From TrEMBL:
The keyword Membrane applies. This is Phytocyanin domain-containing protein. The chain crosses the membrane at residues 6-24. The lineage of its organism: Eukaryota, Viridiplantae, Streptophyta, Embryophyta, Tracheophyta. PROSITE patterns: PHYTOCYANIN. Pfam families: Cu_bind_like. GO terms for cellular component: plasma membrane.
Length: 188
């Protein structure tokens, strides 16, 4: 009889552990509105925007724009540099409220394929790194720009602020404390 109770408690512990890990993973990833307050349009400076942040696997890019006036293409480097989307397109987004999860540590290239928009500056590239333990400075507004050079013309600089979001460190600490508390309460 006691053995059955142990396995029930072990099952509950496993579920709580998986749920806690899910919450912590979601807490570490950030969501970025491309172009910040200016969103995805021909007035924003996407070179400047993309250099403000350090992107990691699990982060999400949110492209907000008027459907039909813009679109989002994820492309290969050659297509990005030439602004010719007849080939090298990895994904197309056209809803006006597109979410792109950054699932791999690699270089990503995005552009607007409406005629003249890419050559006018509606394109950017980002270098996504593996997620690591957060540092004391996790506020996206305080991240230093990337040192990687970009070889395309820039539009006027944005006047907006970051919309990157991150669950505070104290919440992650409380989640871990609660998980450990539940674990130890099962054996008392």
């Amino acid at each position: 009889m006691r053995e059955g109770k142990f396995f029930n408690q072990l099952g509950i512990l496993l579920i709580l552990t998986v749920f806690t890990l899910f919450l912590v993973n979601k807490a570490i990833s950030k969501e970025y509105t491309v172009g910040d307050d200016e969103e995805w349009n021909s007035q924003a400076n996407f070179l400047s925007w993309s250099e403000k942040y350090n992107f990691t696997v699990g982060d999400v890019l949110v492209f907000k724009y008027v459907k039909g006036q813009h679109n989002v293409y994820e492309v290969v480097e050659g297509t990005f540099r030439s602004c010719d989307a007849n080939s090298g397109v990895l994904a197309k987004y056209e809803s006006g409220d597109d979410r792109v999860e950054l699932t791999e540590a690699k270089k990503y290239w995005f552009l607007c394929n409406i005629e003249g928009h890419c050559l006018g500056g509606m394109r950017f590239s980002i270098d996504v790194k593996q997620a690591s333990a957060p540092s004391d400075n996790t506020d996206p507004k305080n991240v230093s720009p990337s040192s990687q050079p970009h070889e395309f013309p820039a539009a006027p600089p944005p006047t907006s602020s970051s919309r990157g979001t991150l669950l505070s460190e104290s919440w992650k600490t409380w989640i871990c404390i609660m998980a450990f508390g539940m674990f130890f309460s099962l054996y008392n």
